[in-house]
Amino acid sequence: MVAGMKLSTSSQCIKYLMFIFNLLFVITGIILISIGSVIHGVYHSHQDFLDNKFFSVPNLLIAVGVIIFFIAFFGCCGAVRENYCMVVTFATLMVLVFILELSAGIAGYGLRSSASQVITGKMKENMNSYNSSKETAAIWDKLQQNFECCGINSSTDWNVPLNSTGLPISCCEVIPGQISESTCNSQSPNVFKKGCLPVLGDLISAHALQLGGVGIGIAFVQALGIWFSIFLARSIKNSYYTV
User: What is the pTM of this model?
Assistant: First the structure.
């Protein structure tokens, strides 16, 4: 930096605001990593009823959160040292992060609209393997007991796959203090009435909505940081010509 170069009062203010913003920027990175990890965990626990695209958005947010820690270095050092190149690098990387977060947010909303269709297809596919695969049976039993549901939309969905009027034992509520029943059917007093699709679909859609809201929300907050960095870069550049 040229000796005697001094930024204007407004530019000095922007410089310190940008430094503070970078601290907040790091916090947003932590938020993205945390939310992405939590939702990835939720999706992973139901991965047999989802496809790969449901994991791409939380993975993207986690990756962006990690990248933010590296980008913040250029912002903080550039602001404190009033280094034009570092500030411009920061602004450029911020634009890239903005695009990635906006894309993740939009994709999150897209997942919400397709959740029901994807889950329905996967459930029908897995349901046909209930009798032939212990792993599939365990997945369905866990789902039905945890969400207190039966079948896709109702218990009648099991009639064809099981080729009988009976239902999986997991379709009936376990009553405390009573010996577990060996059979479960649509006439059982403790059979679950609701299907699993509405319950699981609402859960997946809610988290997809959360991904979309976080991605888009933080993207627009960070747009303020892009403005700070561009204004500061211009001020630093102009100060070279006024010295």
Answer: 0.78
